Amino acid sequence: MKKQLILIVAAMCMIAACIGGSVTASALSAPALDDLRSLTVTGTATLTVDADGCEFYGSVTTLAETLSDAEKNSTAAFRKISVAFAPYGEVIERSYNVCPSRVGSGYTAYRYLQFKASSTDNAAEIRRELSNAGLTEICGMTYTSENDSEYRAQALSMALENAQNTAKAMGAEGRLIKAEETYCYPDGCSTSGKITYTASVRAHFRKAPEPRKNVNGDNNETSAEDKTKDRKENGNTNENNNTDNGNTNYIIKNHK
Fold it and tell me: Are residues 156 and 83 in the same domain?
């Protein structure tokens, strides 16, 4: 009987400890003081500008019975394509390989190229010239700008202004504490001849203005002790004034 009682008591203690532990673990901590004094908002913005250039990718494939001939044919094709594109911009070789052909005998050479044009006006003409020069594949087109970094900064500035307006609408009256970029990227594929920059920032503001500081660098707020001291000094000054007035009246009476 005693053993059963001891076991029951031990089990009850373990249950109580588990319940207490779970309650303690799930308790929410009080918000930090800084969280109560600050407000965090997200600002977004889009900026659409005219492109001053474009770029696209392409490839040239050549076939030959021997590996050496496949390399020679690919090199000749690459030179011809480079000459054809020279009036429009720059050609960059991204990769090159030669391997046995998958169908039949011989070898196939693959050369992948990037084309950067300094204008957006001759897209159709450029494609035609490259095709005539031997380019076997052209992949899409992306519009670009030489002022990319400037436009990114402008888009981020607009996003920060949006965050400030949002914070103000939510009642924040204090200064900006910190701002950080969430993302900023250009889209030069959706609209012909245009680039759209999309930016987002995360900004932290004080909910209320900070107390003003006096010449000594202390806050302008007056403590209760200072207020009591000021009242005492004012009281002593009034008493001295009354005494001085009484002495003056006495002297005037005697003079009469």
Answer: no
The residue segments making up the domain with residue 111 are: 53-144
Is position 176 within any domain?
Answer: yes
User: For the domain that residue 108 is a member of, what is the CATH number?
Assistant: 3.30.70.2970
pLDDT digits (tens, 9 = 90+) for 172-213: 888 999 999 999 999 999 998 999 999 999 999 998 886 666
3-state secondary structure the chain: CHHHHHHHHHHHHHHHHHHHHHHHHHCCCCCCHHHHHEEEEEEEEEEEEECCEEEEEEEEEEEECCHHHHHHHHHHHHHHHHHHHCCCEEEEEEEEEEEECCCCCCEEEEEEEEEEECCCCCHHHHHHHHHHHCCCEEEEEEEECCCHHHHHHHHHHHHHHHHHHHHHHCCCCCCEEEEEEEEEEEECCCCCCEEEEEEEEEEEEECCCCCCECCCCCECCCCHHHHHHHHHHHHHHHHHHHHHHHHHHHHHHHHC
**Is residue 110 in some structural domain?**
yes
Residue 16 has pLDDT above 50, yes or no: no
In a domain, 197, yes or no: yes
